[in-house]
Design goal:
261 residues, little secondary structure, two-stranded parallel ribbon, 2 helices, 6 strands
Length: 261
């Protein structure tokens, strides 16, 4: 990752922490570990609505816990295992997510604003394969991340925020695996999606205003009623795309003539 981008996202997390209320977590790290030792798939530990903010919970296995409404605000969740976990409405703003596994987790309505993901290696990227992420709010630096099969319908990924003069920030999903992802009705405006894999994705009604799509693969995607105003189509693979004649804003898209058909 570029040095400036690293600094920007670290500063973003700091801004979130400083801007948030001064609170202390409900539990200490060892108490969390002890509770989770007792959890099983049949009898998961109940952590619903708990405040676990600003804790270093790195490496913990949360698979046997129910956590709707939990707050991990500013917490270190490096290499944590949330596979299949119930995280509906969770607050993950400013959390450190290097190597964190959210595969098949339910993150419906969760907030992942200014999450921290440092480093460019595959092992440091969080994984969201098959996750339920309907209506999530997310701004994150996730180049190369795996979100294959995730349900991001109605998500707000392209929300632009300003953090005390840091300038405009946006989500980076360049080179990400978004194959068969559901982005129906999602707002992904200004998101970086260069060289992303969007094969077979559901983009119906999504807002792709000024999205950088250059080099991405939309083979077999459904773009019915999607808005591509000022989106960049340079070298985008549009073969087999469904609903292209019903997409909006293509007359104002950039480099559409350079797309592969």
């Amino acid at each position: 990752m570029h040095r400036r981008k690293v600094i920007a996202y670290c500063a973003a997390a700091l801004c979130w922490t400083q801007a948030g209320p001064s609170v202390s977590a409900d539990l200490e790290v060892e108490q969390v570990r002890e509770l989770l030792r007792k959890g099983t798939a049949a009898a998961p530990v109940e952590l619903a609505g708990r405040d676990l903010s600003d804790l270093d919970l790195s490496g913990i296995d949360f698979r046997h816990a129910r956590m709707p409404g939990v707050s991990f605000f500013g917490s270190r969740l490096v290499n944590c295992d949330f596979r299949g976990s119930d995280l509906r409405g969770a607050n993950l703003n400013g959390a450190w997510l290097m190597g964190t596994n959210f595969s098949q987790a339910d993150l419906t309505g969760a907030s992942l604003l200014s999450v921290v993901v440092l480093g460019g290696q595959v092992k440091t990227r969080p994984t969201f394969t098959g996750a339920k992420m309907q209506g999530v709010k997310m701004i994150a630096d996730l180049p190369g991340a795996d979100l294959a099969g995730a349900d991001l319908s109605g998500a707000r990924i392209g929300v632009n925020i300003r953090n005390q003069g840091m300038g405009q920030m946006r989500t980076d999903l360049s080179s990400a695996n978004l194959e068969n992802v559901n982005l129906a009705g999602a707002d992904v405006n200004r998101t970086l999606m260069t060289f992303a894999n969007l094969k077979g994705s559901n983009l119906r009604g999504a807002n792709f205003f000024r999205v950088k799509l250059s080099g991405s693969d939309l083979t077999g995607a459904d773009v019915t009623d999607a808005d591509f105003t000022e989106a960049d189509f340079d070298a985008v693979d549009l073969r087999g795309v469904k609903g292209l004649d019903q997409a909006r804003g293509l007359d104002r898209a950039d480099n559409l003539s350079k797309a592969v058909r």
